[in-house]
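Recall the central idea of this unit: under ordinary conditions, the amino acid sequence of a chain determines the structure it adopts. In this exercise we apply that idea directly, starting from the sequence alone.
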Amino acid sequence: MDELLQALVEGLLIGSTYGLVALGMGLVYGVSGVVNFAHGDFILLGMYVCLALYSAFALDPYVSLIVTLPVMTLVGALVYRFLIRPIADQHLLMVVQLTLGLALVIQNGVLMLFGGQPQRTPSIVEAKLFVVGDVVLRGPQVIAAVISFALAGVLFVILRSTDIGRSIRAVHQNARAAALMGIDVGQVQTITFAMGIGIVAVAAALLSPGASIQPSDGLRYTVTTLLVIVLGGMTDFAGIMLGGLIIGCAEALGTVYLSETLGTLLPYAIFVLIMLFRPRGLSWGTG
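Accordingly, the structure predicted from this sequence is:
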């Protein structure tokens, strides 16, 4: 029972970060219809930027956010404005090919700069443990969960209570009608994509402390994000966060109770099972 509780708690903690990452992708998809297949590679890029800042200036991954957040947000805006937006109205496969190309560029760029060996970014909190009854919580996981839920809440408030949030929701509901009401749809889509990459930058800092990274890890993050976003209903915030928690718990339980191969497959099996009975995902009000 203690082992089960430990696995579930760890799964919930890491799953909250998965949910945050998927919110970034869901936000972009809801406004522009773009599924960014380089999403996980942007996470990886953020983690390597954290590593570079630690190597050069001994910045803790959390502190490095003062650099990675604005830089990657700007990169996101530039990528959408000059690469994705010009072909966004073309065939869907063109956007898919472009984002896959971005993923390969990021992966190979990281490989050339940092090499192919696994590396890690130390943090002052990576060895910190919290003991709650019989459950032992790792410091970085607790911090990641708290920040993930807090940022999800902030994002919800922004979308509900600010002018830019109302513009984003208007474009999400009907881009043509929003344009007729005077909203610059292209600008809103660019800002939204930049916000999505900014969320990725935060997630990269949360995942970095003590974690082993290598250039090929981007695909794993992309696949996990796609699992969560589809499971959550693509654009439903509550559903996406719940999907992240489910996938996180599935990973943790698979690691503890199954062999390495079967444990890796467990999240996919649970995903398929849920989608069989709820094809539209966990989105509230859908069935």
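The CA atoms of residues 40 and 222 lie 4 Å apart.
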